[in-house]
Amino acid sequence: MSDKLDSKIPAGPLEQKWTKHKMDSKLINPANKRKYSVIVVGSGLAGGAAAASLSEMGYKVKCFCYQDSPRRAHSIAAQGGINAAKNYQNDGDSVYRLFYDTVKGGDFRAREANVYRLAEVANNIIDQCTAQGVPFAREYGGLLDNRSFGGAQVSRTFYARGQTGQQLLIGCYQALEKEIAKGGVEMFPRTEMMDVVLVDGHAKGIVTRDMVTGEVKSYAADAVILATGGYGNVFFLSTNAMGCNVTAAQRAYKRGAFFANPCYTQIHPTCIPVSGDYQSKLTLMSESLRNDGRIWVPKSQDDAAAIRNGKKKPEDIAEDDRDYYLERKYPSFGNLAPRDVSSRAAKEACDDGRGVAPTGLGVYLDFRDAIDRLGENVIRARYGNLFQMYEKITGDNPYKTPMQIYPAVHYTMGGLWVDYNLQTTIPGLHCLGEANFSDHGANRLGASALMQGLADGYFVIPSTIAVYLAGEKPGSITTENPEFAQIEAEVTERLNKLLNINGNRTVDSFHRELGLLMWDNCGMARTKESLELALQRIPEIRKEFWENVRIPGHGDGLNTELEKAARLADFLEFAETMCHDALEREESCGGHFRLEYQFTADSPEVQAGSTQPGEAMRRDEEFAHVAAWEYQGTENKPIRHVEQLEFESIQLAIRSYA
Ligand SMILES: Cc1cc2nc3c(=O)[nH]c(=O)nc-3n(C[C@H](O)[C@H](O)[C@H](O)COP(=O)(O)OP(=O)(O)OC[C@H]3O[C@@H](n4cnc5c(N)ncnc54)[C@H](O)[C@@H]3O)c2cc1C
Questions:
Q1: How would you classify the pairing of strands 223-226 and 429-431?
Q2: Could you say which of 41, 459, 601, 611 is the most buried, measured as most Cβ atoms within 10 Å of its Cβ?
Q3: Could you identify the atom of ligand 1 that is nearest to the CA of residue 435?
Q4: What is the CATH number of the domain that holds 575?
Q5: Would 205 be classed as within a structural domain?
Q6: Residue 400 is part of a domain; what is its CATH number?
């Protein structure tokens, strides 16, 4: 265990840790709270919830986002739902079961104490959001409705049609707007954080660029919170919004915050397949569709080839000639097997020559049986907007013919390392939501990201920020401290350097090249060789980028190419850390699948019937830990630190969904 990684997990029984921690932590009295200021970067569900809550408690908050309104944070894209263990269905759910499913779903690579707290506060989130007026779907009797998501055998997902993120964000945004109107939150839209400022080793502010005027400016506070979302766009093609980036986290990493488990990427099984080289975005088809849709490919390669050549339609394939491979391989969970498992199964079917999209990379998600059983109206009420979106993009009507889907990059479980208080290895710098590594281990279960972001923002940080602030003298640091001017100068110099390259290639051409390299070599499957290849190529691409990128225009106003270039420069550094992490983790777990580490027909575990050939082979003896990377200079390999994971409540086992 690295002595630099103190997780600060409270002692005592799992169920009492959070309550006890709150009891044992220092409080700041209401009159004193007003003296403290906090910077929150990000106004998605995690940042928006944190900013609104901290302001309501009395802290002075400055909140930053790069969109023109907090209402447009990427959280708005979330479709399917948010988990909580209310057990309204009386189907055996409990806080413990949600905790257990989450730890197991993450392939036993998350901290028990954090996950238990998450499961515990999840019910409060539903109450809070309902009180805000979030229009969760309801049953006839008036109770909130639930549906099922992958990796769980209970129905615990609360939803608002296929727009849950949007509705939750509207609730959060209203809370934030109320605080803005009261003067507790000062909001800075279209303001991009370019770096974090440390004074005497503590995070005391940020340097930003005004995206409209180009002004580079500093802001100081007593503590800084990053809630800046995930880094899936390192792959260029992903389901994330185009603006999602790693800049804030990478900048913090370069100033001393450790980056944990960067190799854990979630590849979501149900996205619209890639259809050509021109694409810059992939579209998610919500996991909720797997409640009623059945996934299949033809049993024979000939039938699949006939479909690809347009000689057969899915309707021409007889029932007996279809392979409902998830139902076959994982009978207890069927189409609701977790995402990593389902994605790999789709890849396996396509690698076997049974893919149905023109590219060979696609499987069917079929609603025929559900429509026969429930009627088209019920399906329309449940998923109408998703069906409409699918038809608009592909031209196919999913009420009549199955959807074609394929896995795509969707979420990143890695992020800045944080302790139980959500503080990074830099004192005063906290990190929330998708940007931290905390609760999902090697694989996130569906509907758990919204839960974590809101848990962090509404319930955890409002308590734990005081642990840091109580030891600080409020207002002691201002932008007059010389560290601010120095980092402002560094930011300006870097932007000018980018603008002055004047090369021949567009930012996107570099991003596309990096993304493809990452997908091919550090994507759904990785090997030692592929990762070594990527580690050799990334510095070469980075070098060419800094010599040959072309950014038209200037820095004194709106310049979207400059914005993209600055973000890509960070991706080009970060990608290397991802590959180092994937290379050193010599096991397969969750979203990290190393081809060398999979069960085969000869494995004793397969012979004993505990798993199947092709499933991920964890190596708990060596790797039941968090890997957190410490920056050592861009051209040097970072140092890998280890936080050993202690499992007191859950026994590690081969993850089985059969
Ligand atoms: C298509 C899609 C559907 C999804 N559906 C679900 C679902 O049904 N259920 C579920 O649980 N999860 C879902 N997820 C995942 C979930 O939506 C995200 O993980 C979650 O919303 C992230 O919230 P966040 O607050 O951490 O970050 P975001 O919502 O990404 O917010 C990031 C914020 O940081 C700001 N920011 C970033 N960098 C900077 C910078 N340098 N300077 C200033 N501001 C910055 C942005 O402006 C933004 O305000 C889905 C994801 C996708 C892509």
A1: parallel
A2: 41
A3: 26
A4: 1.20.58.100
A5: no
A6: 3.90.700.10
Q: 558-606, pLDDT tens digit by residue? A: 999 999 999 999 999 999 999 999 999 999 999 999 999 999 999 999 9
The rounded Å distance from CA 72 to ligand 1 centre is 10
Q: Are 418 and 465 in contact (CB under 8 A)?
A: no
- Catalytic residue, chosen from 339, 567, 585, 618, is 339
Global pTM exceeds 0.90: yes
What's the mean per-residue pLDDT of the chain?
A: 96
d(CA 541, CA 4): 33
What pLDDT sits at residue 394?
94
Q: Are residues 297 and 405 in the same domain?
A: yes
Residue 435's nearest CA partner among 310, 284, 262, 209 is 262
Query: CB of 231 closer than 6 A to ligand 1?
Result: no
**Does the residue 320 lie in any domain?**
yes
In a domain, 642, yes or no: no
Q: Phi/psi of residue 521, each to 5°?
A: -115, -20
d(CA 117, CA 450): 15
Q: How many domains does the chain have?
A: 2
> Which of 375, 409, 443 corresponds to the end of one domain?
409
240 alpha carbon – ligand 1 mean position (Å): 8
* CB of 43 sitting under 6 A from ligand 1: yes
CA distances to 258, 288, 546, 625 from 639, in Å: 9, 40, 25, 15
User: Which run of H or of E encompasses 298?
Assistant: strand 294-298
Residue at a domain's end among 409, 435, 468: 409
Average pLDDT (507-529) is 97
pLDDT tens figures, 502-511: 999 999 999 9
pLDDT in tens, 6-19: 999 999 999 999 99
pLDDT digits (tens, 9 = 90+) for 134-167: 999 999 888 999 988 888 889 999 999 889 999 9
Kindly report, residue by residue over 353-385, the tens digit of the pLDDT: 999 999 999 999 999 999 999 999 999 988 898
The partner residues of 198 in beta bridges, in order of sequence, read: 203
- Helices 45-57, 164-182: axis angle to 10 degrees equals 30
Maximum Cα–Cα distance for the chain, whole Å?
Answer: 75
For 304-355, what is each residue's pLDDT tens digit?
999 999 999 999 999 999 999 999 999 989 999 988 899 999 999 999 999 9
Structure tokens at 479: 């932008």
Which residues span the domain enclosing 541? 482-622
pLDDT at 518: 98
Location of structure tokens 């000689």:
311
Strand arrangement, sheet containing 415-416: 415-416, 259-260, 625-630, 639-644
User: How far is the C-alpha of 347 from the C-alpha of 127, rounded, in Å?
Assistant: 39
Q: Which atom of ligand 1 is nearest to the CA of 66?
A: 47
For residue 215, give every residue at least 6 positions away whose Cβ sits within 8 Å of its Cβ, in sequence order, or none. 209
- Domain presence at residue 373: yes
162 lines ligand 1 (CB under 6 A): no
User: Are 41 and 193 within 8 A, CB to CB?
Assistant: yes
% of the chain surpassing 70 pLDDT: 100
Which residue's entry shows tokens 């309204």?
Answer: 88
- In sequence order, the 6+-apart residues with CB closer than 8 A to the CB of 278 are none
DSSP string covering 11-45, please? Answer: SS-GGGHHHHHHHHS----HHHHTT-EEEEE--SH
Q: Are 535 and 542 in contact (CB under 8 A)?
A: no
